[in-house]
Design goal:
Distance between the termini: 55 Å
Largest sheet: 7 strands, mixed
Number of strands: 18
Radius of gyration: 22 Å
Helix content: 25-40%
Length: 413
């Protein structure tokens, strides 16, 4: 047996490729995690393409720029930082700072992780077992599908492009079973940028509350909505069985810190997640914890900078799509830093994206990366981002590529 397994409800953890694992007299039938398509793709291209036009994180900053935002106490703490182990839950001062970004969450209701990925992994293993059922929206960030699928039966609810990627609550209701334990959502949505209405969120919470279902809410793109009134409340603030996933990578543009967290009023569930974390990172790096604390205290300044970058870049992208309307179908996302336009050229989006990066150095994320085992997802779309400082250069390079292809009559429109 090559996998390590803890199989009581207090702390389930599964990782490996065995058909079955047995521990403590309990047998779990496992479905192997399939390769993470996004990471495989980015591993090939992310650091070699000249223009990373599909990245989902905001333009980052240097260490000196971030430290310049620190208050005197945090700057002194940085200079005297002890590089020992940290607390598995996260530094108390960091958890206090994270809790201050919520309306009703306390520091005791926050558990930190090394990035959002670890939080997803821990939450699913703490919540789900072979007798449970999970529901998740598709297309999606792959781990919120693949990890539940490795643990239990999982149903996908497809967002409808014909209805502006709206979440169909009737489909969610029809998918719920007596053993449904978790519903997973992500708004602003990756990859479409969709934000559901507050009315839809409230109805979904009511549906979950009626049946005692946990609602896992990936909120990593929150605070980048096109209009402030579109910003949804954090689920942990408004639902006693809600889990809010946050991270420094996306809205704050600090992926190098590798810091994320989950907030929930269910502290017992957080304790189970902490036990899972003992088998992953154990604890976060001390420098990342303090730098995250500094960034969150300067959150409004950082977010204002990032929103200004979006406001500068988005019109450039929209003008490009207007000029090339014969090849692309585009609608402005509700929020976040990415969109999911349709490519209508005859060679298909996969061939287009491959030729674009090979011959123009412009990287897009083809829709095949969002393939789902739970239902059909669009295969004629690609993810594009608009939050990097050199985005306009990348868009110009893509326009020049199309002009060359048009002049040689190799692009069908």
């Amino acid at each position: 047996m090559t996998a390590g397994v803890i199989l009581d409800r207090a702390s389930r953890f599964v990782f490996g490729d065995d058909e079955q694992c047995e521990c403590l007299g309990y047998t779990l039938s496992m479905r192997p995690l399939r390769p993470f398509a996004l990471e495989v793709f980015l591993g090939r291209w992310e650091f070699t393409a000249r223009y990373h036009l599909c990245a989902s994180d905001m333009q980052s900053m240097t260490l000196s720029e971030l430290l310049a935002m620190a208050d005197p106490a945090d700057r002194a703490a940085w200079d005297q930082l002890y590089l020992g182990y940290t607390e598995t839950w996260g530094a108390p001062s960091l958890r206090e700072t994270i809790a201050s970004t919520y309306d009703t969450v306390s520091a005791e209701q926050v558990l930190t992780f090394v990035g959002a990925q670890e939080g997803i992994f821990a939450a699913m293993h703490a919540l789900l077992g072979p007798d449970d059922h999970a529901i998740t929206v598709i297309p999606n960030y792959q781990s919120v599908e693949s990890v539940p699928l490795s643990l239990c039966e999982t149903t996908g609810i497809a967002l409808d492009p014909q209805r502006n990627w709206e979440l169909d609550l009737d489909q969610v209701r029809d998918a719920i079973r007596p053993n449904t334990r978790m519903v997973c959502i992500n708004f602003p949505h990756n990859p479409t940028g969709k934000v559901i209405s507050r009315q839809t969120l409230d109805a979904l919470i009511a549906m979950c509350r009626e049946r005692g279902i946990y609602l896992f809410s990936d909120e990593v793109y929150r605070l980048l909505e096109r209009r402030p009134e579109m910003t949804l409340p954090q689920v942990a603030d408004v639902y006693e069985k809600g889990l809010s996933l946050g991270v420094m990578s996306k809205a704050y543009g600090l992926p190098g810190l590798r810091m994320g967290w989950i907030a929930s009023k269910d502290v017992t569930l957080l304790q189970r997640m902490e036990r899972v974390k003992h088998y992953t990172s154990i604890c976060s790096p001390a420098p990342s914890e303090l730098l995250t604390q500094i960034a969150l205290k300067a959150g409004e300044q950082i977010l204002a900078r990032n929103r200004a970058l979006i406001e500068r870049n988005l019109p450039v992208l929209e003008r490009f799509f207007r000029e090339h309307a014969r090849l692309f179908e585009w609608s402005t996302p509700d929020g976040g830093s990415i969109g999911f336009p349709r490519y209508v050229g005859s060679e298909g989006v996969e061939a287009f994206a491959a030729d674009l990066v090979e011959n123009a150095g412009v990287l897009l994320l083809p829709g095949s990366v969002y393939r789902s085992d739970l239902g059909e997802t669009p295969n004629d779309r690609f993810r594009i981002g608009y939050r990097r400082a050199n985005m306009a250069e990348g868009v110009a390079a893509m326009g020049s590529y199309l002009s060359r292809k048009r002049s040689s009559r190799t692009v069908a429109v």
